[in-house]
Amino acid sequence: MASISETLVREFFEFRGFLVRQLRKYVGREKGEERQVDLLVYNPHPEPGADPLPMELKATDVNRIAQAEVVVKGWHSETMTPSLLAALDDLDKALGLEVFCSVSQGLNVAQGPVTRILVVPDLPTSAAARARVFDALKKRGVDCVLTFRTVLSDLISRIECNRNYQRADVIQVIRILKVYGYLKEDAQLEFFQKRPRRRRSQAVERMGMPPPDDKGES
Question: How far is CA 90 from CA 33, 35, 59, 86, in A?
């Protein structure tokens, strides 16, 4: 069964027109879970672009991708720091050349390059730390990074309150939260918007009182 993190990423790509294949993960009695990529995604109509893809993808950058392998790391209480990255022993096996060649049988290389994407909870705010993370990921075969902040923000903006998503439980939950006002697309912009000035009552205007000073108004 797919994890909630994988489901969110799957819905993100499907909302953007991708065909998504979720690989089965077999668990043996002795060897444990077979390690491989989480999703194979294919874009039937990729947007053209001359510039190379950035290391950190925005939602609109994804439209230029023809097909990709996606590995999802859903540690939502962690930031992808250089020290945390050093502890990921399974990342090489998940995105290494051996696994890449084996899973790419489900993708048509003739349709375009296969991009290897790592989905992470968040990235360091420091430019130096972020550059170290990107450098380490590139050495391990990662082409692009997608953050859950980007995934969730794009999903929230695309989910419509007046539509019913009964067959997609996660999307239906986000829709319900939007309906009841718990999720707003421009919550930060709303918070910092300038408050409108209060209109003076007719009684105050008839008394001829001067308008209050904006600086002193509480």
Answer: 12, 8, 27, 10
Residues 152-161: contacts with CB under 8 Å, at least 24 apart: 152/8, 153/59, 154/12, 154/15, 154/16, 154/59, 155/8, 155/11, 155/12, 155/15, 156/183, 156/185, 157/185, 158/15
Find how far residue 132's CA is from the centre of its chain: 21
Q: Which residues contact 194 (CB under 8 A, 6 or more apart)?
A: none
Classify residue 132 as exposed, middle or buried by CB count within 10 Å of its CB (0-12, 13-18, 19+): middle
Beta-strand runs (E) in the chain: 19-22, 27-28, 32-33, 39-42, 67-72, 114-120, 144-147
- 71 near 95, Cβ under 8 Å? yes
Backbone φ, ψ for residue 52 (5° rounding):
-65, 155
Query: 15: Cβ–Cβ under 8 A, 6 or more apart, which residues?
Result: 154, 155, 158
Mean pLDDT, the chain, rounded, equals 77
**Rounded Cα gap, residues 115 and 108, in angstroms:** 12
Q: Domains of the chain by range and CATH?
A: 4-164 (3.40.91)
- Which residue do the tokens 């990529």 mark? 37
**pLDDT tens digits for 3-56?**
899 999 999 999 999 999 987 655 554 444 445 678 999 999 999 888 999 999
Q: Which of the pair, 113 or 27, is modelled with greater confidence? A: 113
Ranking 9-18, 72-81, 120-129, 148-157 by mean pLDDT, the lowest is 72-81
